[in-house]
């Protein structure tokens, strides 16, 4: 059995305890659950700030940590999508009280008190999680004393009706390899975050999404067969069909999330890299 290293907390010197008997490792460790306390936490392949960003954990998300280093790195697995990597310890904290709400606006400021005129402590991105302890007029007060506009929050179990509409909110956001926030995200990050808002769990990378999501659609280049919400996959890339004439995607070609004419996008990407590899339909 071949295990995907992106999703398997195992190294030759250390592995998660639940993998005992499955993988070979010098030590097996029970993990400890931590929560992202920073606006976001970069997840890298190696414990170095110069290492490539593989994904990003948003504020309030949880990580099962199996090792910390004296240099300030934590090696663990994100609980939302099981991605494994190195995160800065300073971005993490003990779980504390349960999270209750998620950010439903593209970004929202966190104020130190009940006034929008106060300088905000930080800006939380769409999908970030917070623990609300009380509602005070227009503000939701979090367990760490932050004040957020309550209209920018939704209950943790709230579900958006249409993930394509969610994806369109990110139009103009910067393209960032490995990113998952409204300040920057990549093609599969856009798909994952948008689907999550609609209550659909999706793996992190485009090849994983291609294998896991929906059912295959026969596609020979005729865009007439494509429907809203279809996911179009190329090697290393994914886009969302908005309608019969447009494609939504985060693309390095324009370094942003764009709405591109569908026929033109298919021709441009095929000329630059490869033809469409598959189309998946979620419903």
TrEMBL record:
The keyword Ion transport does not apply. It comes from the Bacteria. Transmembrane segments: none annotated. Coiled coil: none annotated. One of its GO terms (biological process) is proteolysis. Keywords: Hydrolase, Protease, Thiol protease. Residues 157-283 form the NlpC/P60 domain. GO terms for molecular function: cysteine-type peptidase activity. InterPro entries: NLP_P60_dom (IPR000064), Papain-like_cys_pep_sf (IPR038765), PG_Endopeptidase_C40 (IPR051794), SH3_16 (IPR041382). Belongs to the peptidase C40 family. This is Cell wall-associated NlpC family hydrolase. The lineage of its organism: Bacteria, Pseudomonadati, Pseudomonadota, Alphaproteobacteria, Hyphomicrobiales.
